[in-house]
Amino acid sequence: MIKPATTRKRRSPGDRGQAVAMIEGTLERARQEPRVEFYFAVAKACDEARVIGFARIGLAGVKAGTLDYAIAAGERGHGYATDAARTLTSYEFAELGLHRVSAAIGPDNARSIALVAKLGFSREGVLRDHVFMNGAWRDSLLYSLLAPEWQENNVRLQRATEAFNAAISRPGSAESFDRDFGKKSH
Ligand SMILES: CC(C)(COP(=O)(O)OP(=O)(O)OC[C@H]1O[C@@H](n2cnc3c(N)ncnc32)[C@H](O)[C@@H]1OP(=O)(O)O)[C@@H](O)C(=O)NCCC(=O)NCCS
């Protein structure tokens, strides 16, 4: 996983050089044909000029992609990563026609695990000694989402949204919303 300079509290000139090289590499790969990498920059509506994070997919295998994301340290916990990952995942399935999207996550990365769980990813298993970081080999947990699962989640979300809208616009219909959607555990 590439750690962008935006996640660090202090930047040295070396960090800046790394960040510039990363962006230049990203732009170059975006021009390649066929394109194998897609980046989604995250910025706040009130400050669109400042990129606070990204979501990325790299295409690999047959109709498959890997998902990565990061948000600047001071901007976490506001749902930006979930929003970006959901948007990019939808793009992968709906626009790129992928069948499978996977994410490899460090076992201690509770935020990232919570994020993919919200998007409906399933845990597949452990990738042993998957990354070499800070002088040691480390495992990753592998999560994935398949196109039919994404489709099914979309239908459920749409039904819930319609029922919610009906519940708040019709007095007395909140009970039926609870009955249909509120008590489900999945
Ligand atoms: C992982 C990361 C992108 C999450 O960014 P974020 O903007 O905080 O994510 P969101 O706010 O969209 O969602 C985080 C979820 O984690 C949950 N969370 C926050 N702190 C948590 C904790 N300590 N334990 C468990 N869950 C936690 C949040 O509650 C939220 O879920 P919710 O919306 O259901 O409440 C960010 O922490 C990051 O950039 N980390 C460094 C890079 C990285 O690890 N990338 C992922 C590589 S796979």
Automatic annotation (TrEMBL):
This is GNAT family N-acetyltransferase. It comes from Streptomyces aureus. Keywords: Acyltransferase, Transferase. PANTHER family: FAMILY ACETYLTRANSFERASE, PUTATIVE (AFU_ORTHOLOGUE AFUA_7G00850)-RELATED, RIBOSOMAL-PROTEIN-SERINE ACETYLTRANSFERASE. GO terms for molecular function: acyltransferase activity. Residues 1-148 form the N-acetyltransferase domain. It is an enzyme of class 2 (transferase). Coiled coil: none annotated. Its EC number is 2.3.-.-. PROSITE patterns: GNAT (PS51186).
